[in-house]
Amino acid sequence: MRNSERYNEEKGHYQMTPFQKHVPVLVHRILGQSHGGIGEDPHNILEHWHSDYEFVLTLHGYATHFIDGREYTAAPGKVFAVNSESIHKILPDIASNRSLTPGEAAAIVIHIEQHFLQEVLRDYPNDYFLPESGNDQTALAASIQRIAEVFPEGYRVAGYEWLHIMSAVDEFLYLLCRDRLVSREVYFPINRAKNQERLRGVLMYVADHYTEELSQQEVAGKFYFSKEYFARFFKECTGVTFMSYVTRFRLDKARDALLSTNDGVLEIALQNGFSDSRGLINAFKKYYDDTPLQYRKKAKQGQAPQMVSVQQP
Predict the structure, then answer these.
(1) At what angle do helices 242-260 and 292-300 cross, to 10 degrees?
(2) Between 180 and which of 75, 130, 157, 226 could a Cys-Cys bridge form, CB atoms 3.0 to 4.6 Å apart?
(3) What is the spatial distance between Cα 301 and Cα 76, in angstroms, rounded to a whole number?
């Protein structure tokens, strides 16, 4: 089996996920309401990147996508493309998904292996799929749904069924190349590309130093930004302030410790960059509407709540 690099909060930014033999595709359904498992909550995912390509079809509700430093609005029927190594995240509009029943999908996500597309594209890595298109997306959306139908999530491919799956993938890639393929240099000028690399460096710095005291001015200086420009730059690229991002990162790490250890709230807080237990408690209340101990108790009962707020200024 080959591997796909996908986000994993414990490891920082990547998770190795196996592709099946002959099938360079993975299918995932983002549920409007999870069944209580932490891994099912799409709201937990911060800015991340991976080598495989990602394509998202919104089925219900609305969301905000941040892809390569630009903000996009998702609505039913819209398809978004995330290129290899592009920094991205999704902020769902939680209220618009509350009408979905447990197990009903809000979106379909398709991952396609980088090495496969490298062989398909004529000018790799200069070829770039537009994240969004103003053209009619009906055919592209239908093609993603067909892939999901012939290759359900978790399905084990047997015999020559991979040929059926790849016929659906080939149709999707034809439409994608016809309607979305452009030159990276034209769409992604050099100064913007450099800024995305600087953003990647900032995110990795936070992942390495979140247990320490971090200030916006200190991090801005390390990456040769003025404090004022850095504040605007980070907010435009991620939709949140730098310190809000740091708090979310620390909260995610603290949540992992809360669920995997029996450590007390103060100990977890101090181990994950909070100055005291009150800071961690306040963060939990803001994002989960629960205290850490209430959250731990509900998680043990299989009822861990999803976030009530995913975007804090």
Answers:
(1) 50
(2) 130
(3) 34
How many whole angstroms separate alpha carbon 285 and alpha carbon 268? 16
Six-digit token pair at 282? 């306040």
For the chain, which domains are there?
2-187 (2.60.120.280), 189-313 (1.10.10.60)
Cα gap 61→75, rounded to integer Å: 6
Helix (H) or strand (E) holding 196: helix 190-209
Strands 105-112 and 63-67, sheet pairing? unpaired
- CA separation for the pair 54, 48 (Å, rounded): 12
Query: CA angle 41-50-5, nearest 5°?
Result: 80
Phi, psi of 42 (to 5 degrees): -70, -15
Instruction: Confirm if 202 and 210 have CB atoms less than 8 A apart.
Output: no
5 membership: H or E segment, kind and range: strand 2-6
The residues near 39 (Cβ < 8 Å, ≥ 6 apart) are none
User: How confident is the prediction along the chain (313 residues), in pLDDT tens digits per residue?
Assistant: 444 444 343 333 444 457 887 889 999 888 765 433 333 444 457 899 999 999 999 999 898 999 998 999 999 999 999 999 999 998 887 777 777 777 788 899 999 999 999 999 999 989 999 999 988 899 999 999 999 999 877 778 888 889 999 999 999 999 999 999 999 888 888 778 888 999 999 999 999 999 999 999 999 999 999 999 999 999 999 989 999 999 999 999 999 999 999 999 999 999 999 999 999 999 999 988 899 999 999 888 887 666 655 454 4
* Cβ atoms within 10 Å, residue 223: 13
Q: Are strands 70-74 and 105-112 parallel, antiparallel or unpaired?
A: unpaired
Q: How would DSSP label each residue in 221-236?
A: HHTT--HHHHHHHHHH
Secondary structure of residue 67 in the 3-state scheme: strand
